[in-house]
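Holo prediction. Input below; ligand is zinc ion.
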Amino acid sequence: MERQLAEKTSIKDIIESCGVPHPEVDLILVDEQTVGFDHTLTDDAKVNVFPVANHGTVNAEKRLQTIVISRFVADGHLGSLTRNLRLLGFDVAYSQNANDRQLLDVMAREDRALLTRDRRLLMHAIVHYGYCPRSQNPDEQTIEIVRRFNLSELIAPFTRCLRCNAMLEEATKADVIDKLEPLTKIYYNQFRRCPGCRQIYWPGSHFAKLQKRIEKICSRARDKA
Ligand SMILES: [Zn+2]
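Structure of the complex:
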């Protein structure tokens, strides 16, 4: 597409005026030369922009994005994605009522990548790393994130609390027995407990179903075709 500029403009602003947030841009060529986001255009130029998806060995040192990031902050609309990522063991800060300012604060303070479907928020200059999930479906979104941040090898299911994001601890049956329903006391012997919200986890009746979902997500994420 062709853009006429009234004044000297940074390449970041030009790309974003076309609707592409800068955290999704991995390589920029201006007249075949690699440049950074603060590069300004003054004369006629041909600009090529590449997404993270084709992160290759060409111009490897000029790439603008970090690939492997496993700490995230998700916006309030991504509750199901957050649960999925926590189920896979990933650290996701989430608050259903967080406003934009709070999201950006947590992102910057805790060095997290921002997950949001709000492209304008991703365009904020303070955002270094982030991703806009394309799909509306939480499982598809999870696959997108695992692919984008190359997380396949880091997946550790059932290690993190789905409710509060804390790492789970092993607990003996004696530790948790007061909190269990009568049938759970009889049938289960392996437990984990959240040191944050005290939620107790065990491989109960829906465990097999969860495991199937995890396997499906993992195999789809590895299959890049
Ligand atoms: Zn918890």
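The two ends are 28 Å apart (CA to CA). That is the main takeaway for now.
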